[in-house]
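We now fix the convention by which a protein and its fold are recorded. The integers have meaning only within a learned vocabulary of local backbone shapes. A complete example follows; check for yourself that the lines match position by position.
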Amino acid sequence: MGIKFRITVMNFLQFFVWGAWLLSFGKYLGVTLGFKGEEIGAIFMTLGIASLFMPGLMGIIADRWMSANKLYALVHILGAFLLFLAARQTEFGSLYIVMLLYLMLYMPTIALDNTVSYCLLEKNGYDIIKDFPPIRVWGTVGFILAVWIIDLLGWGLSNYQLYFSAAFSLVLGVYSLTLPNCGIEKSQAKKTLFQALGLDALVLFKDKKMAIFFIFSMLLGAALQITNMWGEAFLHDFGKIAAYKGSFAVTHNGILMSVSQISETLFILTIPFFLKKFGIKKVMLMSMFAWVLRFGLFGIGFPTGIGLAFLILSMIIYGMAFDFFNISGSLFVEMEAEPRIRASAQGLFMIMTNGLGAMIGAFGSGVIIQLYTHNGIRNWHDIWFIFAAYALVVGIAFMFLFKYKHNPGAMEKIAK
């Protein structure tokens, strides 16, 4: 087997493991284990907590003491054990601790996956910019396929989703041990702890424009977490209404939700055009107002007729909401940061979005859900409109506070 195929398998399994539980886990916690909104939010906050510092710490280990591919394999093998342990927990306290430990291991593997992929492609004479994106897209395919399998097997409300993910985490760990060794890059080993954690990029906050950008990245990062947590639970709750009980949106809510990821793979192809044509400010505003529509359409959607059309449209809009913020924002940071701190700046962007932003989204949405839950019934209409109002306020504030003059030439160069 060629090295590109082997890296593709690694990327496929990396996100297959995540897709097996991420979208259905909130539904499992609320319906099967009976956790309250704040408890579900607290458990999903562990994703943000882990993203704050663990990628940097794992990067130090990979830079100084253990090759990236061996560390990657070890972490997934240990992760398999923790997922197996998580599947056996039914109390909030114990499950919280196990999931925190697991995500402290899993979240750094997203960066390690890239590191191993880049290393092996370079060693074999491939062009990373040209050859990695077609490989990485198979990660999204893996995520979608895992969601479909869990849905079709009816495991969305069962701890089987965690056992399933654990099995493939073990497979991925063992498989990664068969990949060629990356070695340790001595130049990277000279990084200080401050640099490895991406904290040297904090100098960017001295620039008012960048400070505003990072703050809004954090606020928008909160939106990214909400539908991961609550999307399937929302659709599942329609099953409590007799008219919707046997509808596709209820019985196969995981498949319906996965349309969001399919849309994501398509919208990513449009980013170079939109960045060149409109610039980062307008593209980010498109993302923010797409989040308004994403949540608003959930608020008026229901599983049949025109209501189902609203739900499907919400899934399609997700591609713009996610990609136009996450990918375009990363490209903007790459363009604005000095070469010596670009890696740290990307780390800071991840901390603001997947770290602090995810924590705000998880905790805040958990509180809102609980406030609008009475006698076990959630008022999803009002809940989604509150989230839509949040995205609208963020978008309007960004429109007036973020000052940026579009330079088509500079953006075209970095977006290629």
Summary: DSSP finds 16 helices and two strands in the chain. Strands lie at 373-374, 377-378. Residues 198-416 form a domain with the Growth Hormone; Chain: A; fold (CATH 1.20.1250.20).
